[in-house]
Amino acid sequence: MSITLKQVFNKDKTFRPKRKFEPGTQRFELHKKAQASLNSGVDIKAAVQLPHGEDLNDWVAVHVVDFFNRINLIYGTICEFCTEKSCPIMSGGPRYEYRWQDDLKYKKPTALPAPQYMNLLMDWIEVQINNEEIFPTSIGIPFPKNFIQICKKIVCRLFRVFVHVYIHHFDRIIVMGAEAHVNTCYKHFYYFGTELNLIDRKELEPLVS
User: Fold this and answer.
1) Do residues 116 and 110 lie in contact, with contact meaning Cβ atoms separated by under 8 Å?
2) How far apart are the first and last CA of the chain?
3) Is the pLDDT score of 33 beyond 80?
């Protein structure tokens, strides 16, 4: 028996605290504009396109933070079923295995159980988006020159969360009656990533139907 999305996607199940945009800032306004476009029924492909006159880095920053929050929430709903026993390897089916590397503790790509990989992934992204030198929140502070490259890595790693959830835990999403919500979030993420060339086609292969 399914339960309502409100019951499924609640703040208590969030895997990490949400990063929010400060009211009155340009990014807050961009976030509102992006959400309004989606909620108005505009085609998702059109909604992800950079609005005329807006800065690309701001547009990417707003979406990367938003996707982190949403995907965080999606994984939070199934994380109790994603254990070292059920998912001893972080994978997307038998053909795709994801190894963790962070240049800190894991200097070489290392095979890890999915929940451990997910924790490291979310920790790593959280550090990036809360770093004022990478995601500045104050007006007038420029983005770093390698900002888009950093975002590509974040988007790539967030996509792997979708891959794992879809291939290994989608039965739980269906039981919760949340598949429509997850599918919409995935389409939004997919169109944004491909529209702005933030994700390599090779990474998309596990979910190509």
Assistant:
1) no
2) 28
3) no
What gap in Å lies between CA 141 and CA 57, rounded to an integer? 12
Q: Answer whether residue 3 shows pLDDT above 50.
A: no
Lowest mean pLDDT segment, chosen from 83-87, 107-111, 129-133: 129-133
**Count of C-beta atoms within a 10 Å radius of residue 74:** 23
Query: What's residue 10's pLDDT?
Result: 43
What is this structure's pTM?
0.82
Q: pLDDT at position 2, please? A: 37
Which DSSP string do the residues of 5-32 spell out, in sequence order?
A: HHHHS-GGG-SSPPP-PPTTSHHHHHHH
Which band of pLDDT confidence, cut at 50, 70 and 90, is reported for residue 5? very low
55 vs 58: CA distance, rounded Å: 5
Q: Which two tokens stand for residue 200?
A: 């390599």
| Gyration radius of the chain over CA positions | 17
**Contacts of 122-131 spanning 24+ positions with Cβ under 8 A:** 122/15, 122/16, 122/72, 122/75, 124/157, 125/68, 125/154, 125/157, 125/158, 126/16, 126/19, 126/68, 128/154, 129/19, 129/64, 129/65, 129/68, 129/154, 130/19
Q: What are phi and psi of 97, to 5 degrees?
A: -120, 135
Measured N-to-C along each axis, helices 179-195 and 56-78 cross at an angle, to the nearest 10 degrees, of 150
Tokens of 97: 């295995």
